[in-house]
Amino acid sequence: MKIKTAKNLVTLDWELKNKRKTDNEIILSMVEKLEYWFEKYPKGFAKHCEPRIDQEHLDGLSWTQELSISRYLFKKAFKEIGICYLSPEQFEQAEDKFQGKFYCSVLHPLNNQRTFYYRNHKLIAALSKKWFDGIDLMISLSNQNAKLN
User: Fold this and answer.
1) Which residues make Cβ contacts (< 8 Å) with residue 42, sequence separation at least 6?
2) How far apart are CA 46 and CA 29, in angstroms?
3) Sequence-distant (≥ 6) Cβ neighbours of residue 1 within 8 angstroms
4) Label partner for 76 (CA 20 to 30 A): which of 24, 82, 124, 147?
């Protein structure tokens, strides 16, 4: 795992705790898996909620398999951290694609019912800056002092 991804996970964990959303371990597991996939596919990726015949073409397991949860629990937890669009047209028409959430999903009914996931890079970068700004500065100063000595 890259340092940036680990930092993002810590940022999102702290932000969820700050919003009192961490009572649900499913949300934390979901964020961890989403960040794993976004490390591989920063522009987004497709994944089914439940196993389907064409799952092998989507680079891995469905969400219910990967997280060992039901479809109901997945959808309930995702609504806490993401926005769901029922079609590409609905997504395109939205002015604010993420509506202040970390992620969004877009169902493509005409593409084997695949759901595409996107990450709110701007929000996560801003939150990372909020939570790590002072820490990054201290690490930078510490590294500079170490080089001087």
Assistant:
1) 119, 121
2) 18
3) 36, 39
4) 124
Residue with tokens 């680079």: 59
pLDDT digits (tens, 9 = 90+) for 122-144: 999 888 887 777 554 444 434 44
Q: Which residue has the tokens 């930092």?
A: 7
SS (H, E, C) the chain: CCHHHHHHHHHHHHHHHHCCCCCCHHHHHHHHHHHHHHHHCCCCEEECCCCCHHHHHHCCCCHHHHHCCCHHHHHHHHHHHEEEECCHHHHHHCCCCCCCCCEEEEEECCCCCEEEEEECHHHHHHHHHHHHHHHHHHHHHHHHHHHHC
Six token digits for residue 101: 């959430």
Q: Evaluate whether 75 touches 141 at the Cβ level (below 8 Å).
A: no
